[in-house]
Design a protein that fits this description.
Elements: E1 4-5, E2 22-24, H1 41-57, H2 66-80, H3 89-95, H4 102-107, H5 112-135, E3 147-149, H6 161-180, H7 186-204, H8 209-224, E4 229-231, H9 233-242, E5 248-249, E6 252-257, E7 260-266, H10 271-275, E8 283-289, E9 296-297, H11 303-310, E10 317-323, E11 334-339, E12 341-342, E13 351-359, E14 362-370, H12 378-382, H13 391-404, E15 409-413, H14 422-429, E16 437-443, E17 448-452, E18 466-470, H15 477-487, E19 492-495, E20 503-509, E21 524-533, E22 549-550, H16 586-601, H17 604-620, E23 624-626, H18 629-653, H19 673-688
Parallel strand pairs: 2-6, 14-15, 15-18, 18-19, 19-22
Antiparallel strand pairs: 1-20, 3-23, 4-21, 5-12, 6-7, 7-8, 8-9, 8-10, 10-11, 13-14, 16-17, 16-21, 20-21
Helix pairs in contact: 2-8, 5-6, 5-7, 6-7, 13-14, 14-15, 16-19, 17-18
């Protein structure tokens, strides 16, 4: 059986992501007219194959029965209308007839009911968009005091069409108000929204059989766990492109969220990463070609169509109009110019810098190594190139350079590092521990294997004061490395609880399992087949790695992370493997935490940072917005003024010149408070000298 082990080398949900330009989840060729949607014979064959793999190979050994069927139905409905804007309660009630039949459908029965459910959704969507177009015939009154509830995930289903009409009246009014807040006049607003809604209607008619089947199969797969997925033949080709070094784009992963195309990840080393302005959770609302090309509104577009607009020749310019992450609708639109380019492996390489920390008349030099991913150029390695690129080789070289520059301590920065090659995670750990196990793996059959330091003969590359800086987007291989450093008491982990992605996936090409292959192909299945465990026996799954010293972060752990996903595999433990840790750091960590808290009380940058987080959390807690333009303008100006006041308070405390207008803030690059705090903590370590200056462990093992 030929399979590709995805999970061993994957990040949160990406594999070898550093090689990508644009990653699109859910794509299919557009067609010119609406088609009658129905399952094809090969879809039933795929359903049977997937069911067989699930029962034989998935880590949970889940039974495909009535209980699973019920869960799949709920997830499929959610995938079609998660914000409850289209279906009526009567529609959802009718779907109850399928609650215990889906397990039979994927085994042997026709899949027509799943397509019929989609047709109900498409009919309702057409009704809503046609109603929205009618509403645009009259300019809304923005002086009325009323609110639009934009977060309806927990709201009850509408029971009547008139109830849906009222929801959509407010939605359309909010769309119009968002444009009015950008100083557009009604004729322009009307034209823009007419085009947007018509485009959405057109794309509803472009859905094909593979689109519907893929949506249903992913509802099935995601009921098992968040990282098991089905790729249609078209998306199988997209996956192949992801592995290619010849792809040109901006270096971002995208997915659809309601009517928006949202950035899920910025690929280290790509054009977007180098530019630094595009961020995860940003929503792309328009795309233009060249530095002065017309911006085309893409709200409501198919994801693959948006991707095609963003892709293009090397060195060409694409313009993106975005709503920044966390921005309320109608607030803070930005336009970015990005030059397309190849996402080269060497551009993802780890980088070093030195932070000077003044303390009691002395300036301490703290080295920082930013590791954006765990990369390894296997192609060069297989060709016998001894100079192949790898995270471990680069970090080892950077450590030598930093020590030559006379550093007093070191920070390994793994923030936003979604993972990469497992081999690199174990090898990088070996630079800091003498030898011994790094991680354990358990497969679906319960067999446990252990991965050790791959170069046990080599001496540790660095044995001085060490901190590993992580956040909620540190996942997979990052968590393996951070856990090893923590378990061996080799250094302190600072930052935020990590993502908690501790599962292993295989990717199966389904065409390999049929004698007569359909010309259209069967696609691919990604299936979770194992879990990672620390040397202590604790899983990194679900809980991630908890920092020894927690730092404030704007990333909300209740919204981001494995624990947020209701089908995530649970945390559990296996037996501790044999390893020998260094001296416990408990007392040291208590002292470091006390010093950090005292220091942060009087740190203007820290106070600025935490106040900003409070404002973000306040905005995030809102589920509705005012539809009164004066109230919205006042709210926007209040937010901008609060940010200006925070910045000027920080600048006054630091003896810097004040800023006069909120617009000037857009040009500023604020302090990296988390990194500065990590450097201070390492300086404390350097001062205390409590970490053993020799190797952290010996080759001895516990009995």
């Amino acid at each position: 059986m030929k399979t590709f082990v995805k999970g061993l080398y994957g990040g949160i949900a990406l594999v070898c992501a550093g090689l990508l330009g644009i990653v699109a989840y859910a794509a299919a060729p557009a067609i010119d007219a609406a088609v009658t949607l129905a399952p094809e014979p090969r879809h039933e064959k795929i359903g049977q194959l997937v069911t067989e793999f699930v029962q034989k190979s998935h880590y949970r050994h889940a039974a495909v029965d009535d209980e699973l069927s019920s869960q799949v139905l709920d997830r499929y409905i959610e995938s079609l209308d998660n914000n409850r804007l289209y279906f009526l309660k009567s529609d959802v009630d009718e779907f109850e007839a399928y609650r215990t039949r889906i397990d039979d459908m994927v085994r042997s029965e026709p899949l027509n009911p799943m397509f019929e459910m989609f047709e109900v959704y498409r009919t309702r969507a057409r009704e809503r968009l046609q109603y929205a177009l009618q509403l645009l015939e009259i300019e809304p009154d923005f002086t009325v005091d009323e609110e639009y509830e934009f977060d309806r995930e927990e709201a009850p289903w509408a029971t009547t069409l008139s109830e849906l009409d009222e929801i959509w009246r407010k939605r359309v009014k909010n769309d119009a108000l968002n444009l009015a807040l950008t100083e557009k006049e009604w004729p322009e607003i009307q034209e823009k929204l007419q085009k947007r809604y018509s485009q959405f209607l057109k794309r509803m008619d472009q859905v094909n059989n593979d689109d519907v089947f893929e949506s249903f199969m992913n509802a099935f797969a995601h009921t098992l766990d968040p990282h098991s997925s089905y790729y249609s033949p078209r998306n199988s080709e997209e996956y192949r492109i992801q592995m290619s070094l010849s792809y040109f784009g901006i270096g971002a992963s995208l997915q659809t969220e309601d009517d928006y195309v949202q950035v899920t990840n910025i690929i280290a080393g790509g054009p977007a990463s180098v530019d630094g302005k595009l961020q995860p959770k940003d929503r792309i609302i328009a795309v233009g070609q060249g530095t002065d090309g017309e911006l085309v509104d893409v709200i409501g577009w198919r994801l693959d169509d948006v991707v095609q607009l963003i892709r293009g020749p090397e060195n060409s310019v694409v313009r993106l109009q975005i709503l920044p992450a966390g921005a309320l609708p109608g607030m803070g639109e930005k336009t970015l110019d990005l030059t397309r380019g190849q996402v080269k492996l060497e551009e993802q390489a780890a980088k070093s810098s030195i932070i000077n920390v003044p303390r009691d008349g002395r300036e301490w030099r703290i080295g920082v190594i930013d590791v954006p991913s765990f990369y390894r150029d296997y192609e060069a390695l297989s060709n016998g190139d001894k100079d192949f690129t790898s995270t471990t080789k680069d970090v080892k070289r950077l450590i030598a350079e930093l020590e030559q520059d006379g550093i007093d301590g070191l920070v390994i920065d793994l923030r936003n590092n979604g993972g990469g090659h497992l081999t690199e995670a174990t090898a990088l750990s070996g630079l800091f521990i003498d030898n011994g196990p790094v991680v354990q793996l358990r497969n679906s059959n319960g067999r446990i294997s252990r991965l050790d330091d791959p170069d046990p003969v080599a001496r540790v590359a660095y044995n001085g004061p060490l901190a590993v800086l992580v956040n909620r987007f540190s996942a997979s291989a990052s968590e393996i490395f951070a856990a090893a450093i923590q378990d061996y008491a080799r250094g302190v982990i600072v930052g935020q609880q990590t993502f908690g992605k501790g599962t292993v996936q295989n990717l199966y090409s389904l065409d390999q399992y049929v004698r007569r292959r359909d010309e259209a192909g069967l696609g691919q299945l990604t299936l979770t087949i194992g879990k990672y465990y620390r040397v202590t026996g604790e899983s990194t799954q679900h809980r991630g790695v908890n920092p020894d010293i927690a730092l404030p972060s704007a990333i909300d752990t209740t919204l981001v992370g494995e624990s947020v996903r209701d089908t995530a595999l649970p945390w559990d433990t296996i037996r501790t493997t044999r390893f020998r840790a260094g001296e416990p750091l408990d007392t040291t960590i208590v002292s470091l935490a006390n010093s950090y808290r005292e220091r942060s009380k009087d740190d203007p940058d820290y106070q600025f940072f935490t106040a900003g987080i409070e404002d973000v959390e306040s905005a995030r807690a809102k589920k509705a917005v005012s539809l009164n333009i004066d109230a919205r303008v006042e709210e926007r100006e209040t937010i901008r003024q609060r940010r200006l006041d925070r910045e000027n308070a920080r600048r006054a405390a630091l003896g810097l010149e004040a800023i006069e207008t909120p617009e000037e803030l857009e040009e500023l690059e604020g302090p990296d408070v988390q990194l500065d705090q990590a450097a201070d903590i390492v300086t404390d370590l350097a001062e205390m000298r409590t970490i053993d200056l020799g190797p952290a462990q010996t080759a001895q093992v516990l009995p």
